[in-house]
Write a structure and sequence with these properties.
The structure is a homodimer. Chain A has twelve helices and 16 strands. By secondary structure, the first copy, chain A, is an alpha/beta fold. Chain A has two domains: 174 residues, Medium-chain alcohol dehydrogenases, catalytic domain (Quinone Oxidoreductase, Chain A, domain 1, Alpha-Beta Complex), CATH 3.90.180; 136 residues, 3-Layer(aba) Sandwich (Rossmann fold), CATH 3.40.50.720. Chains A, B: This is IMP dehydrogenase.
Chain lengths: 339, 339
């Protein structure tokens, strides 16, 4: 990405092993993320060019001398953040805070590419028992980010059987937060979103109600649906201030706002009249999806869930710039990339 | 209270039953709260006069026709917020959000008085198996607010046996947050406070370390003590922005900031570089102390804990203005009032 609206596909040197803990993965599927749209809309030319893409699955081509448990030819999926998976933070399930970890793209080369270098490969990559032609690849790819991120929102909000849930945002993360809340047993799931085809998929994933209204109107609608109380959990999958404000308005006293949309603001209301007075908990962050892959994988493999439905368009590597455009114009929910 | 610095003791009409759910309680012990110091320092004359005091224990004098389970002569303690204790929010343990509830003082008459009207008496008051001359009265009085509030901070932060804790503030709530964290099994409790007599009491209650430094220096000290990581929980018992900033600096990735100091700000940093990036949870609010009295009472009654040690001065009702002054000048930690 060179600057806002300017994505180019170009040849770069092949990635190579730089450290003994690295692996090189040939990419089989990658995709464009909703969070890639933030720089696509705002990036200055002086900040570019940067490699893009942090979601991928593929085949191990080469491993460093300190990598064990992985070998050339293994099919693997990668979390969007690499981590050693052994440090104290990783053990507590916060791999996105691993001191040896980091995010893919700027530091490693992007995953919207033919191949990528994976630091901390042994702690990062998870082997998949499928071949390169598996029909499950789109669903398995969601384990790299959007499914694990939706799941993180629901887990951090402690969604369970007696929980009522509002999900703000009908992008891929919001829709998979619906799926996760459903899997965790939530009795009621209100999806706030305005795009009919997306909210229909949300209903398929388990939403019991859809609220198309926004702002104060949207808040009132959620309150109407819940006898004036709001919901125990609000999963915020957008990241803009109006979504935060809707979350504060829709959450029940004693409830939890769980954010997984990357906040495009730093300060927000948290005082007596917003969070403190009604004992609202604010949680969330970049999802440590590595912590969830083992838990989410079986239901993907046996077809119980089909999170790959969030992909509604497939492009080749050369067509990636068109993929960004389609997502930016909301013609596409999420774009799959086949190199 | 007439205005900042101006507290007067004066005769008012005796409280009477106004609703069938009311009771009248003759006050045996009350006290001055750290939160009373906020208006004592800032209140405009145009906002006064207001009755003061929300922490009390005493003897039931009269009950309304719809109050059962309580009778004249019962010794009782009251949470600082009254509540029906039957609604959905109360059942979930958030009595401070009860639609029929409210806070003592402005709406009910204050508890720094000879008697007070208690709305929703059946749901609010808890009987105590002691007499008016019990040596346990100071400790039992802390169940009305400061002990339950410290406990709320620790519970909301999910303090347990593997939790490291920082407590910000060496007022009564901070010190009792230390005690609560200890009771919940925390392995390490770092108390941030600068008043030696108070932090000594904090050590008695279970603090393993004391940090007298503030601001960036204080943060660095906590990080030094924790191998650079910070603590899993930070219990913030002050309410000013510098305390919030210290909490953000002292908390460990994936950790919890639990606020029980009433925030004297509305907006605060919550974005990628403060809470979101390291997956910090922000929680807390006015403590639903009613939810904790049953749990905390036995150890007070059998002398296992002695939270009443936070009282370091006793005044008569006529001396209450001097009590405010002593707390304001930090000559006194917390002032007990015997009408």
């Amino acid at each position: 990405m060179y600057k806002a609206g300017d994505v180019r596909v170009q040849d770069t040197p092949d990635p190579v092993i730089e450290r003994p803990t690295d692996a090189i993965v040939r990419i089989v599927r990658s995709c464009v993320c909703g969070s890639d749209l933030h720089p696509y809309r705002t990036m200055d030319a002086s900040d570019g060019p940067v490699p893009m893409g942090h979601e991928f699955l593929g085949v191990v081509e080469e491993t460093g001398t300190e990598v064990s448990g992985l070998k050339s030819g293994d099919m693997v999926v990668s979390p969007f953040a690499y981590a050693d998976n052994t440090c104290a933070y990783c053990q507590e399930g916060f791999q996105t805070s691993c001191p040896r970890g980091g995010f893919f793209a700027a530091g490693t080369g992007g995953a919207q590419a033919e191949a990528v270098r994976v630091p901390q490969a042994q702690g990062t990559l998870v082997r998949l028992p499928v071949g390169e032609d598996s029909a499950l690849l789109p669903s398995l790819l969601t384990l790299a980010d959007v499914y694990g991120t939706g799941h993180h929102a629901a887990k951090q909000a402690r969604v369970g059987e007696r929980t009522t849930v509002t999900v703000i945002g009908d992008g891929a993360v919001g829709l998979l937060a619906v799926l996760s809340a459903r899997q965790l047993g939530a009795e009621r799931i209100i999806l706030m979103g305005r795009h009919r085809s997306r909210t229909d998929l949300g209903r398929f994933f388990g939403a019991t109600d859809v609220v198309a209204e926004r702002g104060q109107e949207g808040i009132e609608k959620v309150r109407e649906l819940t006898g004036g109380q709001g919901t125990h959990a609000v999963l915020e999958a957008v990241g803009h201030m109006p979504a935060y404000e809707m979350a504060v308005g829709a959450v029940r006293p004693g409830g939890v706002i769980s954010r997984v949309g990357v906040p495009q603001y730093e300060a927000a209301p948290v005082g007596f009249s917003s969070l403190f007075g009604p004992n609202i908990t604010l949680t969330g962050g970049p999802a440590p999806v590595r912590a969830y892959i083992d838990e989410l994988l079986p239901a993907v493999l046996d077809g119980t869930v089909d999170p790959g439905r969030v992909f509604d368009r497939t492009v080749s590597l050369d067509e990636v710039p068109e993929g960004y455009g389609a997502m930016d114009r909301r013609e596409s929910l999420k774009v799959l990339v086949t190199p």
